[in-house]
Batch of 4 targets.
Target 1
Amino acid sequence: MKNEKQIRQPVFLIIAFSALILCAVLFLFIAYTINSSLDPGDYGNADVSRKQKALEYVGLKTGIDVSEGDLYFGFDDHDGSHGDGKTYLEVRLPVSIDIVIWESGDWKRFPVPERIDSNVCKLCIDKHRRDHEELLPQINNGWYYFIDRTPEYAYDYKNFTIAAYNSDSKVFYFCQYDS
């Protein structure tokens, strides 16, 4: 007859192995959940739910609901390495949102101040476009929103969110840059 120690050893191994598998499954689930919130890649050919998530993300970051718009160009190249990368979206809106933007109180009328224009727009160059034009075009009639998320002590990187709305074309631009 087997002694009690010989019986406990296989039971312990089974419990330990089961706990290890459970931890691995939990880790994969959490990693998938985090990464699926705003997946990297090109939004031009994305499915409807992915585009909708991107539009909701813009609303969360800017305070302006653009969920009724058409996301016709965009990408997210955040690579997961310290969160570095750029999210850029262009949204065509069916109606003007000038009043909504004005009422928010967080947006300013164009032109963008020189210190923002010269520093930020240089960082918003799209490697996905062949001609490397600036992502944020020249806007004469519209609004902009800028949040510098770079800590005061940071000298070697920039983190910012800039959005712009062209009142003439009803196009909403969003760029989130993290270095």
Target 2
Amino acid sequence: MEWFKCPVCGKNLVQIAPDAVCQGVYIKCKKCPAVVEVKIARKEPEPLSLSRKTLEKL
């Protein structure tokens, strides 16, 4: 899990899972007066890179 941080002061606001998707959620930072919208977009899977030896084995 990683932290979603306040863009103003950098305080950790909420933990997010690697597969989380979120939009339209607002959190008030306890350290500074900022109200932050939490936007988490879907992450595209990274392409696999195979070596030439691995490909020859297939």
Target 3
Amino acid sequence: MKRGFRTPRKSGFVLITVLFISTLLLSAATTFAWFARQEMRRASHEEFALVSRSLASVACQIIGSWIGGDSNNYDSELELLYMPDYPFLLFFGNWEVTAKITPQDRLVPINGLFLPDGITMKTEFEYVWQEFWKQMGNDQLSLLILDFLDSDTEARPGSMEEEYYVNRKISHLSELLKIKKIERDMVYAQPDSDKQTIDRFFTVYGDGPINVNLAPREILAALDSEIGPDVADAIAIYRSENIIEGEKDLVKIPGFPMAAHTRLSNVLAYKSNFFLLDMKVTNANRERNFSVMLKRNGQACQILSWGE
């Protein structure tokens, strides 16, 4: 027998083995390269998110000082600071922050319905509360929600108390969904829908008065029996060109009943304490959006909620 001779079968086996190992190594290299790219993208994304968040926080402080420095006795969308169609631009090197400030206190404060005892409903809010549930066509739900929110565990006449009722102020309207008879479409408005919902009338961000410069017409119309849709329209027309600073301006509005102003002295206001800040942080072709609720606190603002 001749030494050193390889059979074709052995040569083929070696070739297949080499090809298999080469393929395995190539696959491993490709996988590693893909993993490395993914990690780089993830790290870049996290870095962008971190820097964006930091710049949004700085922008909040700057804008909060602007709001705190607004020392007049009114807040209106006619003011440059709050004009909805003119957002602010802040530049930080190659980074840009676009910000829009929307004064709140335009809806009925659901956490401000009761007197300090946490049980008795404020007289000035009784009419608007009843009008809303009349529009909803469900008076029973109005009692259930009052029992859900008030500080005691005693049921109101015609209502009931449940063990899961929170009996406190709520931090978000979604807490109302804990009530078994409350459906999501009762709480939140759907796009392009005219259906009356809780979030179109009530807010958790508010500590009492409603800014007459900002309140929607349906809110104004439901505040008092002597106001109604016609006076609400007159208010909306007047404030579209004029800022309402006080009673001296209300008397200029055609048909506004001054007797209603007396009844609503604890409900109507001309200045806001809460502000929604919508921001977009941009760098190159990337952007990140933020929605922040601020509360005026002296010469600055306190952050109440932060959304991204």
Target 4
Amino acid sequence: MGRGRLPALIGWCLIGWGLIGSPRRTLGQVDLETATAELYGLAPEEFVARRTALVRQARTAKDRALAQRIQALARPTRSAWLVNLVARHQPEVLAELFELAELLAEGMRTVSGPELQQLTRQRNTVVAGLTRTAIGLGHQQGHRASESTRQEINDTFTAALADPDTAELVRSGTLTRAVRWSGFGLPGVDARTATPPEPNDTDQDTGRDTGQDSDEDDTGGAEVVDLEPRRRAADRERLRVELERSRSRWASASTRHQRLTDQLAELTDRVERAAELVRTAQEQASDAQREARAAQDRVRECERALEAARSACTALVATAERADHELSESVGRLRRERDRDASVREQLGEAEQALAAAERDVDRAESAWEEK
């Protein structure tokens, strides 16, 4: 594997092992991000009970600040909840709205009257389609929208075309109230953001509702804003907050980058050591295979030698059997010769005795002759 691909591979391993990822503020089993995502995915009538349970859970985890921030999350109106459903379940549908917002912003500066009218008609078509989508999603969950709710949804999507802050809220799926844009100013975000304020030391952790839910009408409550100073102040504050967040994210990212760089270097070293061990093991395996093949050759040679020895042994046994047979025959012949020799000796003895007797007879005859 090339060294250029090694860091990428290790990076995927780090992600797969869960060693890297975005940090999350979590205490116990509750965190603000998860609580916000869960609450604004619920129907308005389920919001307060679940928020109370999450606040209780944060208090159990001894996190008073988190409990206060969850308690500060405002229950969405019916129309805001339906808009949030679109962002949560069909975010790709909103992409057309935001693309159209860019075209409208550019058209206000560059295009002529007829072209701007065409963009306006396109805006009405897109907004009407998004409104139908929101109402359809609510209907799937058993909620039928009234005409006033339908109008508030339509107004909110229209406001998102003119106000980047409203567009961002719509995109986030944490809208709390419907918004109606009027005039050329950009509305502020103070009354409709789902981001709760930071807790302060004067807040009392009594577990009571903040009052954001009790007087709110699910079929109304859309705000109308048309103040240029508020827009400029909101823009300045938003830019300041974004700058602080960017600085904080940059510092955190730098620290994390250095930590991950060190981890990557360590893992790279481990991988290289492991690769060296693998190469050594492969070489040892190759040597063992060569030795095994040599041993097999020696075994085959021994088997051939053994087969030759067996053949020679068989021949020797056959030769020994023939020799034994010949020896037996020789012994038989020798015994027969010995028996014949004994018989001849016996006959010779008898012949010698007969000869001696004959000599004695001759001697007696000669003696008798001489005496005559």
